[in-house]
Amino acid sequence: MVYEDATLDIYPGETLTIIGGSGTGKSVMLKMLIGLLRADAGSIQAFGTEVTKLTETQFIPIRRRIAMLFQGAALFDSLTVAQNIKYPLREHGWKDEKEMDARVHEVLELVGMPNTEKLKPAALSGGMRKRVGLARAIAVRPEVILWDEPTTGLDPINIRRINGLILSMQEKLGVTSVVVTHDMDTCFTVSNRIAMLYERRIAFVGDIEETRNSGLKYVEEFIVGGRGTLDPADDEVTKV
Predict the structure, then answer these.
(1) pLDDT tens figures, 91-111
(2) CATH superfamily of 1-65+144-240
(3) Long-range contact list for 115-122, CB < 8 A, 24+ apart?
(4) Which terminal residue of the chain, N or C, has fewer Cβ atoms less than 10 Å from its own Cβ?
(5) pTM for this one?
(6) Whole-number Cα distances in Å, 104 to 28, 88, 111, 124, 152
(7) CA atoms within 13 A on the CB side of 195
(8) Cβ of 147: how many Cβ atoms within 10 Å?
(9) Are strands 66-69 and 144-148 parallel, antiparallel or unpaired?
């Protein structure tokens, strides 16, 4: 059993960040929501639909509304940037090449990667791969984006870029975001609410101020261990 009590609500338009130690099941939550992993018990609802018993075919309408940005971006190395972005468009029934080309151009502009359509993933840095992964994720106009450790392995400049993109997706596209991260600077930059997974349960949920002032030892230790700070006056997080 991964969870004993993982009750959690996600509200439309918010950015909810899930924190917790390695191996506690944070990424598993994201994968169960879109059916990549199946729950043995309990209830998972998306857009009012119970998803735990859905077949692969029945899951398709849910997956059309939810996009996931995997930790390693999960790009196809043999395909160009444009071909990677077109892949989910074709899966969702797009057929007109000109329309797809226009959408590729549009989403690459949104993530700050113009004129990269012909490049292969091998020619991209880690931060660039993440941004192309995001472009592919938003190409199908999802209502929800799931971010699995979006800043892992990136340098400070690219961390700020990714944090800025998470904020931008909320502001420009109105999407709901669920972010899994160990980085408390990222957490405090992008979140409307923060949930902590601890000892197989959602042990805390609150906004940034409530998180800083929770008075819970395991929350405070995680904040400090994640290079965050309990004192907002000490923060040097840059929003971009």
Answers:
(1) 888 889 999 999 999 999 988
(2) P-loop containing nucleotide triphosphate hydrolases (3.40.50.300)
(3) 116/81, 117/80, 117/81, 117/82, 118/80, 118/81, 118/82, 119/80, 119/81, 120/77, 120/78, 120/79, 120/80, 120/81, 121/73, 121/75, 121/76, 121/77, 121/79, 121/81, 121/84, 122/77
(4) N
(5) 0.85
(6) 30, 11, 11, 17, 25
(7) 23
(8) 30
(9) parallel
The 10s digit of each residue's pLDDT in 152-201 is: 888 888 888 889 989 988 988 899 999 999 888 999 999 999 999 998 88
**Position 42, amino acid:** G
> In this predicted structure, what is the pLDDT of residue 226?
56
Tokens for 199, please give them: 């000892």
20 token code pair: 């917790």
